Amino acid sequence: ERLGADLRHSLDDGDFHVVYQPIVDLGDSSTVAVEALVRWVHPVRGFVSPVAFIPVAEDNGLIVELGEWIMRTACRKLSEWRRVLGAAAPLYISVNVSARQLSEPGFPAVVTTILTETGLEPAALLVEVTETAIFGGGTAIEAVESLHRSGIRIALDDFGTGHSSLGLLRTVPVDVLKVDKSFVDEIAEPGGNPVIVDALIHVSNGLGLRAVAEGVETEEQAVYLRDLGYHYAQGYHFGRPSPDPILVATVPAAP
Ligand code: G
Ligand code: G
Ligand code: MN
Ligand code: NA
What positions does the domain EAL occupy (predicted)? Predict the structure, then answer.
C-alpha cells in the first residue's frame, strides 16, 4: 500500500516528530510527567493522524522500528530535561506501545537498552498499553510482566473503552489507569452523566493504582475531577501536545 511505502521513506527521511503533552497534578497544575505522541508530516499529504498510520505501521511491521525510534527519542528528551533542569524536570515520560510491539520477541530487552543508553532508571518510564493490545493474544501479557518486573511502570490507556474486564486489573501488573476522555466529556455537559469517572476513581484507589483523567478541556471539568479525588489529569485545558512544553515554559523571555 502507498501509505505503507511512504512510512518507510519517512522513517529514513526524518519526517516523524515526537510531541509531548503535560500530565499535571490537579492540586497545583504543575507538570509531573509528559506523554509522548508521534506526529507525521508527510512530504506531500502534510499532517497525517496517528489514527490513520499507526494501524498501517502495525500491519506492515514498521511499528517495531518506528516505535523503537519514538521510545528512544522520548527517553532522550527526558534525559535532556534532567540535564537542564535537574529535579525540576518531569518525573517520568509516558510512551504508547502498540500490540505488535508488545508481542515482538525481545521488546523488553530493547526498552531496557534504551533506558541504559539514555541514563534513565526504569521508574522514569511509563509504558501505555490498551486493553485490546494486551488481549491481542501472543506474548503481549508476558512482555508487560517482564517490563514491570524490571521496574518500568505500566498504564492501561483509554481505560473503559476496550473489552474491559475489571478482573484484568488484578491479573496484569498495572500501575496507572488512564480514564478515557469519553467519560470525562460527560462532566459539565448538558444531559451528561459523570457516573463512570466517579466509579473509576474508587476502583483505582481501591486497587492502589494512580488514576489520570484524560481529555480535560475545561476548568469546570478539572475542578469536578479534583473534588472527586483525582490527583492527575491531562488535556487541552492544561496543554496541547507540543515539541517542548518543558523548556519553553522555563526559558526566560528575552529582555
Ligand atoms: O496524538 P493523537 O490524539 O492524535 O493520537 C491519536 C491516537 O494515536 C491515540 O490513540 C494515541 O494513543 C495513538 N498514538 C499517538 N502517538 C503514538 C505512539 O507514539 N505510538 C502508538 N502506538 N500510538 C500512538
Ligand atoms: O489514546 P491516547 O490516550 O494515547 O490518545 C491521546 C490523544 O488524545 C492524543 O492524540 C492527544 O492529541 C489527544 N488529546 C489530548 N488531550 C486532549 C483533549 O483535551 N481533547 C481532545 N479532543 N484530544 C486530546
Ligand atoms: Mn496514551
Ligand atoms: Na488514552
Answer: 1-255
